[in-house]
Design brief:
mainly alpha; two-stranded antiparallel ribbon; 18 helices
């Protein structure tokens, strides 16, 4: 029996060898495929976890942005009111002075100027902080990311990328918007207001539609001047050096961050985002003003809707106090409709994501 089996094996030896080779090859190929599949699965899982961690960090950073904006609105409002103090003029009017008309004219210019400045500067504050905090957020993500390689660290400017001292120096540049930048913006807006409303009599009645047209003219003149980004961040190299307070390693990093911020502020994309914020801001301002231009339903003409932009006209003298008080709504530290419209603006969110993406990738460090 064994002899016949052995003879059978000898006769079919080549087939057995070939079959064995095939089976062995299939086994090895299967093991190799399993290994590769496992590697792919582990890589995908790692990338998913990293992406989820990055997304969580980004969303957390946006909440920080929102809270920072709200915390900066009171000092912004105070800075505007200090430079455009209409309250002192109101007190003077109560004393019935001889130059009452002159004071009213000053109050007209100051009231419109400070409301328009409030809209512009609040929009700028939202956009500037969104850029700055997402630049820092991107770098902090790289500092804190798990598995950051030594090669990436060597390619970076320093370790960590943004030490606390650098962050403090860098974020202090917001003082330009609250200081010299605001003063320059006020001067520009005041000139535009004077040009648009200087010759309008206090007795002249304006509808909401006519008031909107006045604001459009003022905006057109303001926007036709120097780039709005110049009010948000100082562009003089000497000033940047002063802001960085010297030439230590941290100071050089601060200057680099400021230069990167300026690049973002000067980009066409940011110009579109700021324009969208301003459009929404002035639209919300008009919504607030519309509350004072409504006809009582009983007094509405049959063919005139109560909410019509031209249904009601008010003397400019009555509009001035209404305009004057809008700064409390525009620069409100409590989440108002005005501020929420800006913080939740889709274009602001998209641009913030672009900034964060740009500065949270290792490739940025190797340029």
């Amino acid at each position: 029996m064994f002899s016949s089996v052995w003879n059978f094996i000898k006769r079919h030896k080549k087939k057995f060898i070939f079959t064995g080779a095939v089976v062995g090859g299939v086994y090895l190929l299967g093991k190799y495929a399993q290994k590769k599949i496992k590697e792919v699965q582990e890589k995908e899982a790692s990338e998913y976890i990293a992406q989820a961690r990055r997304q969580f960090h980004f969303e957390s950073n946006q909440r920080t942005c929102n809270m920072t904006v709200l915390s900066m609105l009171p000092p912004l409002r105070e800075a505007i009111v200090t430079q455009l103090n209409s309250e002192s003029l109101t007190v003077m009017l109560k004393t019935k002075p001889a130059n009452k008309l002159e004071i009213w004219e000053d109050l007209k210019i100051i009231s419109f100027t400070r409301t328009v400045v409030a809209v512009y500067s609040t929009c700028m504050l939202v956009v500037l902080l969104r850029v700055q905090l997402n630049i820092i957020g991107g770098y902090l993500y790289l500092d804190n990311s798990v598995g950051k390689s030594a090669a990436v660290r060597r390619a970076s400017y320093q370790s960590p990328l943004t030490p606390p001292d650098v962050q403090q120096q860098y974020l202090s540049s917001i003082q330009h918007l609250l200081g010299d930048g605001l003063t320059e913006l006020i001067s520009r807006v005041k000139t535009a207001v004077q040009s648009s409303l200087g010759g309008v009599s206090l007795k002249q009645s304006l509808s909401l539609l006519e008031l909107e047209q006045q604001l459009i003219w003022i905006r057109a003149e303001v926007d036709s001047g120097r780039p709005l980004s110049s009010y948000m961040l100082a562009d003089d190299e000497d000033v940047l050096a002063d802001q960085a307070c010297g030439l230590t390693e941290n100071d050089l990093v601060t200057i680099r961050l400021l230069n990167e911020t300026r690049d973002m502020l000067d980009s066409p994309d940011l110009s579109k985002v700021l324009s969208a914020c301003l459009n929404r801001g002035f639209s919300r301002l008009l919504d607030n003003l519309a509350e004072f231009f409504r006809l009582p339903v009983s007094d509405s003409a049959p063919n005139c809707a109560p909410d019509s932009l031209s249904a009601v006209s008010l003397p400019l003298a009555k509009i001035i106090p209404i305009i004057n008080g809008q700064i409390n709504s525009v620069c409100s530290e409590t989440p108002s409709h005005f501020v929420q419209d800006l913080l939740l603006n889709d274009q602001v969110k998209e641009f913030a994501a672009i900034v964060y993406e740009t500065f949270s990738t290792p490739q940025e460090l190797q340029k």
